[in-house]
Design goal:
With 379 residues, the chain is an alpha+beta fold. Helices cover 30% and strands 15% of the residues. The strands form 4 sheets. Strands 3-2-1-13-12-11-10 form a 7-stranded antiparallel β-sheet, sandwiched between helices. Strands 6-5-14 form a 3-stranded mixed β-sheet, with no helix packed on it. Strand 12 and strand 13 form a beta hairpin. It is globular, with a radius of gyration of 20 Å.
């Protein structure tokens, strides 16, 4: 088994130096877990460790789950990727925008209002990170009857993802991580004030809008609504290596290839925001089109795909080398330090798998000089 001590020292050092309050990393190589290591806390007040079964807000790591759902429906002949949205979502039609409408109470209502907003550009002209995946979630809902139901029946239950949902039930709140926020440009993060919401909603803080609805809500965001654990999301990520798990085929070979292929081509990405980290974009995931380029992971294979979440979770799937990495943290605020740290942790995994040394001190020193430097005393 590979010696992953370099990754452990990097994770430990990042927490010890106050770059974030807690960080958990799991790495698989050829289907075997070679690293399962956490540092810091899920709840600093109660001193609860951040580990594999800590329930975290995964935010935009919900998007690849929607991508898989759409491709499953495509494999079953229930939709085509070039179908107009209106074919499956009847409310998707022209209309007027009203500034005085009441709060959205369902995913259908959300899409009804959204389609009244003028397009920023014609489809196919450019890439724009947006609420488009929420619209795809509505497509799944329209075809199946329930986005949450499809997730649970067709993806989560077959994979054994028992803690992944659109909310946290009361009996699991003791494993629900605290969420920290970081003021961009400041020197210290500040802890969010928590309030336990009674009943099945299970939201631990009012700043997390997607959790306020909980499993009973009809507003389930395909763009960022899931909570999960490292244990659970690793099962999903490992399935993406081959498209199958536990004797169940989730995606056809064609759909798997389509998911991890670059669909931007010469049109390119909105480079200012994403291309510094990725060189292509597939179907709900960023992709590596040139082996080793993305994130400086010189060992990663072509077709490596990955994404992250707003609270600084992240995952990577490298089908060529059969490597899977899942990182969890709960620091809200997409500054430059933590995403760079995630990339460095993923690179360190590759270095250790290749038997190379990880220069932990150099990495931590470089991170300490970057845009955002929290101090440990504030956590």
């Amino acid at each position: 088994m590979a010696n992953m001590e370099g990754v452990k020292r990097l994770v430990d050092g990042a927490v010890e130096r106050g770059l974030l309050h807690g960080l958990h990393t799991r790495c698989y190589k050829d289907g075997a877990c070679v690293l399962d290591h956490g540092a810091g806390h899920a709840d600093a007040e109660k001193q609860l460790p951040l580990d594999g079964d800590t329930i975290c807000r995964f935010y935009s790591m919900t998007k690849p789950v929607v991508g898989v759902a759409i491709l499953m429906l495509r494999d079953e002949g229930l939709l085509a990727l070039d179908d107009p949205v209106s074919k499956h979502v009847p409310e998707w039609r022209d209309g007027d925008i009203s500034a005085k409408e009441p709060p959205v109470r369902s995913l259908q209502e959300f899409c009804t209002r959204l389609q009244r907003v003028p397009l920023s550009h014609q489809p196919g002209e450019r890439f724009q990170y947006s609420v488009s995946i929420d619209v795809l979630g509505r497509v799944v809902e329209a075809i199946h009857g329930s986005l949450r139901g499809f997730f649970q029946e067709r993806i989560f239950t077959p994979l054994g993802m028992k803690d992944t949902d659109f909310g946290v039930p009361e009996e699991k709140l003791d494993r629900f991580a605290s969420l920290f926020s970081a003021k961009i440009g400041g020197k210290t993060p500040k802890s969010v004030t928590y309030e336990l919401i009674p009943g099945p909603i299970g939201s631990r803080d009012k700043s997390t809008v997607y959790l306020l609805g909980g499993p009973q809500s009809k507003v389930h965001s395909g763009g960022g609504g899931l909570v999960s654990t490292s244990d659970d999301y690793c099962k999903f990520a490992r399935m993406l290596v081959t498209g199958a798990a536990g004797g169940v085929r989730f995606l056809s070979e064609q759909s798997l290839a389509d998911m991890r292929a670059d669909h931007l081509g010469p049109r390119g990405i909105v480079k200012a925001s994403l291309a510094a980290a990725y060189d292509g974009f597939g179907l709900t995931v960023a992709v590596t089109t040139d082996a080793g380029r993305s994130h400086g992971r010189q060992h990663s294979g072509k077709g490596t795909h990955s994404w992250g979440g707003a609270a600084n979770t992240g995952f990577l799937v490298d089908p060529v080398n059969d490597v899977v990495v899942v990182i969890t943290a709960q620091l809200l605020g997409y500054n430059l330090t933590v995403p760079t740290l995630r990339a460095k942790v993923m690179l360190a995994c590759y270095q250790c798998l290749a038997g190379e040394e990880v220069d932990v001190e150099a990495v931590l020193a470089a991170l300490a000089m970057s845009y955002f430097r929290p101090t440990r005393s504030s956590l």
